Amino acid sequence: MNDKPLRGKTALITGASKGLGRAMALALAEAGAHLALAARNLDQLQQTAAAARHFGVEADVFEADVTDESQVTRLAQAALARFDKIQILINNAGINIRKPLIDFNLAEWRRVLDTSVTGAFLICHAFVPHMKGQGYGRILNLSSTMGHVAIPGRTAYCASKTALLGLTRALALELAPEAITVNAISPGLIGTEMNLPILQNPELKQQFLSRIPLGRMGKVEEIGALARFLCAEAAGYITGTDILIDGGWCAQ
Ligand code: NAD
Fold first, then answer.
1. What CA–CA distance (Å, rounded) separates 13 from 134?
2. Least buried of 56, 145, 210, 250, by fewest C-beta within 10 Å?
3. Fold adopted by 10-244
4. Which one of 123, 157, 180, 231 is the catalytic residue?
C-alpha cells in the first residue's frame, strides 16, 4: 500500500491555523503533500506549518483574508511563485454567527456568507486557471450538516453552507473535463473553537450529544482522514457530491 499517496502534490488550505483546517493540513502532509497554508493571522499558522514539516514536506504560510479579492490575488501570486504548481484547494475558512434572523444586521449576515461562499469563489477564481492541464486536481469545500438540515438561530450559516453545496456541484461539472474533482465535506459536531459556545455549556452540549446517533462528537482527525482520501487518486471518480461525516445526525 502507498503510504504517501499525495507525494509530489501541493495543497492550498484556507483557515489552516486551527481546527479542521489544521487537521486536514497535517493529514495531507502525512500523505506526502506540500502545503501552502493561508489565514488572517500568521502566528498560529506558523505552528501548523512547523508540525507539517515533521512529515518531511515543504510547508509555507501566507497571510490572507479570503473575503478580500486583492488579498486573494496576492495570495495566489505568492503561493504559485513559491510552489510553482498547486493541484489541491481546500476551502475551509468559515465562521458561524448564532442568533435569530431578526437580530442580525446586514454586515454580520454578509460576513458569514462572504467567508464561506464568496471566499470559496475568490479562491477558486484565483487558482483554478493554474490547476488546468495537469490531468489531476482536487477541490474540497467545507460545508456542514447545516447545509442539509437546520436548527434555529443558524439562518446565515445554513444559507452559506447550502450555497456552498450548489457551488460544489456546478463547479464539478465545469471542471470534470480537466479531471479536477470538486466535492464538499459536511461535518457534524466536531470539538473545535467554533463550537466553544456549545462545548462550554454542559446542558447544551448534552442536548447536541443526545441527537447524535453515534453518541459522540467527531474528531478533527476523522475530517483529516476523509480529506486525505478525497485527494487521493483512488477517489478520482468522486465528483460533484458531498460526504456527510456527522455520526448519523442527518440520517434521522
Ligand atoms: P475554526 O473557527 O476553529 O477555524 C476556522 C478557521 O477559518 C480559522 O483558522 C479562522 O481564522 C479562519 N477564517 C475565518 N474567517 C477567515 C477569513 N475571512 N479569511 C481567512 N481565514 C478565515 O473552525 P473549524 O471548526 O475548524 O471549521 C472549519 C470549517 O469547517 C468551517 O468552514 C466550518 O464552518 C466548517 N464546519 C465545522 C464544523 C465543526 O463542528 N467544527 C462542523 C461543520 C462544518
1. 19
2. 210
3. Rossmann fold (3.40.50)
4. 157
